[in-house]
Amino acid sequence: MSIDLFIYTNVTVSCLPLLTKCPRSPANESLSGTVERLTYHSSESGYTVARLKAPRVSELITIIGNFANIQAGQTLQLKGTWGEHPKYGSQFQVVDYQESLPATITGIEKYLGSGLIKGVGPVTAHRIVAHFGLETLDIIEHQSERLIEVPGIAKKRIAMIQRAWSEQKAIKDVMVFLQGHGVSTLYAVKIYKQYGNHA
Q1: Tally of domains in the chain
Q2: What pLDDT does residue 18 have?
Q3: What's the CA gap between 159 and 164, in Å, rounded?
Q4: Of 55, 71, 100, which residue is a domain's last?
Q5: Parent domain of 110
Q6: What is the rounded CA–CA span in Å between residue 199 and residue 156?
Q7: Which of 25, 35, 177, 183 is the least crowded, having the fewest Cβ atoms under 10 Å away?
Q8: Cα–Cα dist 19/91, whole Å
C-alpha cells in the first residue's frame, strides 16, 4: 500500500514520491509518544505530518495520518505501519490512534501551552501547572473555578478555558465513539469535520 505524501514548505505544497511499505514492518504495530511539533496539518481533511517523541528513542519519529485535532504536547497511542520515504526516510503511517492525557509536569505544561486550549499559552500554562502540579488536568476538568487561585487568571479567562476544554472533550468523545463502532480514523475525521458534535 502506498500513499501520496504532501508536506507544506515555504507557502507551497509539493507532491513527494510515494511512501513504500518497509519489508520489515508487520501489518500493524503500536507506537506511543508525545507530539513535539506539526510539520503540516490540513484542517479540512485532518491529514497531518508530525514529529513524535517516543520513550527510549533518541530521535524524533515522523508520523503521518488523519487526525481530527492534533497539537504539540498531546500524548498519543498509535497503531499503523512503518514506511520508507526515499527523501524523508522512515515514517510511521497511522491507521488508528487514541489520545491519553500527559502524566508528567512537563508534559502537562506542554499540552496546555500548545494552543489546544484557547486562553492558555505557554506562560499561563506554566503558572497553572506550577500552582496545581500533577492535579492540573483534573482541576480543569472538574473544578475549573479554582483557576482563580492562579495569579494573573481572571474570571473571563476561566470562562474561555472552560469552553475550550469542553470543545476538546467533545471532539475526543466523538472520535472515541466512532472508532469504537468500527469507523476508521480517516472516516471518523471526515464525519467529525462534516457534522461536528452531532456526529
Answers
A1: 2
A2: 44
A3: 9
A4: 100
A5: 105-172
A6: 30
A7: 177
A8: 8
